[in-house]
Design goal:
With 131 residues, this protein is α+β, with helices and mostly antiparallel strands. The chain has a domain at 30-114: Ribosomal Protein S5, domain 2, CATH 3.30.230.10. Helix content is 35%, strand content 18%. Helix 2 (59-75) crosses helix 3 (98-113). The radius of gyration is 16 Å and the shape is globular. The N and C termini lie far apart (39 Å). Mean pLDDT is 87; it is low at 122-131. Keywords: Endonuclease, Hydrolase, Nuclease, RNA-binding, tRNA processing. It catalyses: Endonucleolytic cleavage of RNA, removing 5'-extranucleotides from tRNA precursor. It comes from Stutzerimonas stutzeri.
């Protein structure tokens, strides 16, 4: 799989965002950020960012944060295959410098990648054996 961040790897419509907000299967809280995830039945992950003026005042800071998040996402796509992910920024996120932002998101991606998929977590999933 390519490590690009093309249009197909982004959540674009309000409907796509709403699906994740309404029924997130994985929730990973971090410092100054909340990561919500939902399975997408695709061969690649998709990312959506919610970084409002309320939590990050300056547009240059919002843009810097988005660039950092997208870059770490790009490098960890293989571990995140099959997830739609929405990142919600909270106050204080702009106070982190780029290396700290990158470190935090690498940890968040790892925590999310360890979240079991719904299919393997359901009782009676495909991995049951009969004697």
């Amino acid at each position: 799989m390519s490590r690009d961040f093309g249009r197909e790897k982004r959540l674009l419509t309000p409907r796509q965002f709403k699906a994740v907000f309404d029924s997130p299967y994985g929730k990973v809280p971090g410092r100054h950020v909340l990561l919500l995830a939902r399975e997408n039945d695709l061969q690649y992950p998709r990312l959506g960012l919610v970084i409002g003026k309320k939590s990050v005042k300056l547009s240059v800071e919002r843009n810097r944060i988005k660039r950092q998040i997208r870059e770490t996402f790009r490098h960890h796509q293989l571990e995140l295959t099959g997830w739609d992910i929405v990142i919600v920024a909270r106050k204080g996120l702009a106070d982190l410098d780029n290396p700290e932002l990158a470190r935090q998101f690498v940890k968040l991606w790892k925590r999310l990648s360890r979240t079991p998929s719904k299919a393997s977590a359901e009782p009676g999933a495909a991995n049951t054996t009969h004697a």
